[in-house]
What does this fold into?
Amino acid sequence: MRLKLISCEVLFREMCDACAHSPHQVDLEFLPKGLHDLGGKPMSAKIQEAVDRTPAGNYEAILLGYGLCGNGLDGLTALHTRLVLPRAHDCIALLMGSRERYQAYFERNPGTYYQSTGWLERGKGLQQLTHQTVGIDEPLEALIRKYGEDNGRYLYGELTRYQSHYSKLTFIETGLEPSANFLAEAAAEASQKGWSFERLPGDLAWLRRMVEGEWAETEFVVAGPGQRIVASYDTGVLKVQG
Amino acid sequence: MPDLDKLHGAVIEGDWKAAAAATQAAIAAGVTPLTIVTEYLVPAMDEVGRRFECEEYFVPEMLLSARAMKASMEIVRPLLVATGAEPVGRVVIGTVKGDLHDIGKNLVASMLEGGGFEVIDLGADVSPERFIEAATTRHANLVALSALLTVTMTSMKTTIDAFATAGLREKVKIMVGGAPVTQHYADAIGADGYGESAAAAVALARRLVAP
It folds into this structure.
């Protein structure tokens, strides 16, 4: 099969590896991780643009390297080529290999901040575009410059308070890391913030099944031309309409 | 007569010191606490909400306006309580169980307070039991649920179901909001309303508690 993969860059190393081992010919296109910061509707509009500019008749399917991602994939419509999307809430589930494993881990480990190579090298957190609109991750000096000493310090306190809700950093190790630097960087960040640290083995089998064309109904939604992918708000995460 | 437009302007500009000073001056000059809230603070926060809607203001500006509004409310609230004035409504607000994100919820809480509501803020990661307890003991007529993650959105349904099981569903209106939440989801889980933004949340809350 000839397949097109449109993926978030946060999964860059994992997708490149999976495609290299796929029996199929997969053309890759990565979109910025910062799309998440735009919010659900603008994000899905950007992904829809990428889907729509894929030429008709070239591919058996367009694979999407995403999950529901805060409704960033909600409402996506297949134009001429079917769309394949994992039934995942987000990339953490994809890196863990199943939504059940993610759900169980999430419930057992409240207040956990997740990292992987993509999260470390593709910009910290989800904040690439939010400096102006939310102010998260703006350094104290920048806030003081913009809002004055008193209000700047107040804003810094308000905008960094969320960090006090976190108590743990989990680094998902996929085995694709070229050196121990990523792990060391994540561990150092946890220590600097006073959080506990866990090194969790990832599982890339789910991603591999996507690029290998094994799209079981339980793991993927497949939308044919004219059909829409929408959030299902149940354990299946996503469903197809139309 | 003190220059109360200064108070209005101070809230919009996010100048808490000026807001507090203008409030003190107004009280000293005999302006009633209720007038300060309904004719100056509420319209000022409505204007802040409007500016946010049209992307003239962003989260930092809203936080500063909320701070200025609160500085005024700190002075006015005890006087209001003394007059026995009833708030527009009593709302219990929190981020649902499993979700620790609270910036959006805090903004909505501030906007509701600025909109004349008594706000009981339970913080983040709030269990259905805590929502029910607070709504009951504080005689709230409105419950506002927030979530930032699609993983935790289902806690909104669990919370609404818990109110029904406790036989309290008819006693309170429940509104939901947060980045991944949609009107469709609000309808699906039986919420009474959905607010797309902090300003929309205040308008919705007013509608829901209207007699």
